[in-house]
Amino acid sequence: MGRTRQPHTGYVLKHLWTIGELVSLKPYPAPKWLIKGWLPGGGWVLCFSKPKIGKSLLVAQMLHALAVGGPFFSRQPQPMPCVMIQGDTPMPLWQEELAQAGLPADSPVHIFEARPGALSGGLDPIMAELRPLRPCYVAFDAIDSLFVGLNINEVEPAKEVLRRLRHVAGGPAFLAIHHARKGSPGEQEDLRDAAAGSRVLMEQADQVVYLRGPEGPIEITGRLTSAVYKSQHLRRTEGGLWAWSEPKRPSLASASP
Q1: Does domain 32-243 have CATH number 3.40.50.300?
Q2: What is the reported pTM?
């Protein structure tokens, strides 16, 4: 069978296995992570929820951890240059939100102020400003603000969105924020189906981070991992940053004989 080098792992893997071949492969090649369980080293992440839940701050928090080498939810990533393309929140308001959240004033994450629809037309102006920074990871906030006039409920426009995101990101991995809004085309009971374009985009994403509410839970699903950060174990600072407290487990000394 043909073999393909997987961008997530760097290993050369087959696509077809017998049961015997699969169970005898020990260990199975581990995926490469930028932030383990959250940001894969290849492919792209879709982060979505209703508006004003905390997506942008969560992503800014991840980027800061990635830029300085952690920590994020007890993870310690390797530091790398990061850029957040902000086309959703007006810059004065975003400045205020970042200051209130308590992210360090000397954070090395670059924020690129983009006008609504900035990625709908020519990409050269953005590329000219990003190129000198040589970012290793780029986050886009938000797809529905940066792209105007494209119906991303349809497959071909959604593919064009991803093509443009990959071109701007430049590297093997990036993240995009997407708003889930009621009244979207094809709305159903499940918020995932009500999000404009999210169903099409989710099918293309390597990882999906879904915020169900302002206090959680946070659900992560994808080709490499799945996890649920339950609301009772999540906490948010007064400024809105996210933190995770490990569930307490009884010690041996306190266990019943």
Answers
A1: yes
A2: 0.82
